[in-house]
Amino acid sequence: MNYLILVRHGQSEWNLQNRFTGWVDVDLAPKGKLEACKAGELLKEQNININHFFTSYQKRAIDTLKLILNTIRIKDNKIVKAWELNERHYGSLTGLNKEEIKKKLGEKKVKTLRRSWDVSPKPLSKNNPYHPLNIDVYKNIPKEKIPDTESLKNTYNRVIPYFEKNIQDKIKENVIISAHGNSIRALCKFLFKIDNKKISKLEIPTGNPLIIKFKNSNIKSANYLDKERARDLLVF
């Protein structure tokens, strides 16, 4: 049996403040650090020999992975960082409070912007300090690849090619990916063949390892280690 482990980063400072984060590089909240350590403890109990470690360019995901690896006593010097695994870019919603936007635009409109397959928020101005062009961590990414806004479809179109090229064949040696709500939703859509409408119902909990078991390249099972905070995977 081979394993792919997907972990959404622990609660971030902006999750705590209920703000649209996207590509802004924010820290883990204290609760998020505890979630990451608990994720490590749960993984330690599984006794899985993990050999490949992937994360995004964003420190909330990087720090989550480092805390997990520290807990299971694995050195973090083999971590591979890929901007393609970044969170979805929320465009002009970036930095705004979700409840305030609901009052302004209506709950139905905000749900469409957050959960639909191919609807993107309005682009974020390139002069905005939250634009990735103005964030140091992204300075080595080709400018033409940096988005102003994204739908889940756009996110899928960068996550999945990277996964197929760099990660998929390593599952036979067991892989962990620490990423984000929408980059993991994209991966789940691909792995579980979730259709464009149904994907809107998929929610990914913070700091809760999703263990996907493979046999001969076929998925045999998938489950969250923390049962109390599990979400419906729509397929298992």
**Uncertain segments of ≥5 residues (pLDDT<50)?**
none
Average pLDDT confidence is 95
Shape: globular
The main pleated sheet reads as: 6 strands, mixed
Sequence of strands across the biggest β-sheet: 3-2-4-1-5-6
Query: In angstroms, what is the radius of gyration?
Result: 17 Å
- List SSEs in N-to-C order: EHHEHEHHHEHEE
Between the first and last Cα atoms, what is the distance in angstroms? 18 Å
Q: Classify the helix fraction into a percent range.
A: 25-40%
Strand tally: 6
**% residues in beta strands:** 5-15%
Structural class: alpha/beta
Q: In DSSP terms, counting alpha (H) and pi (I) runs of 4 or more, how many helices?
A: 7
How is the secondary structure organized here?
Blueprint: E1 2-8, H1 13-16, H2 30-46, E2 52-55, H3 59-71, E3 79-81, H4 98-105, H5 107-115, H6 152-167, E4 175-179, H7 181-192, E5 210-215, E6 218-224
Parallel strand pairs: 1-4, 2-3, 2-4
Antiparallel strand pairs: 1-5, 5-6
Helix pairs in contact: 2-3, 4-5, 6-7
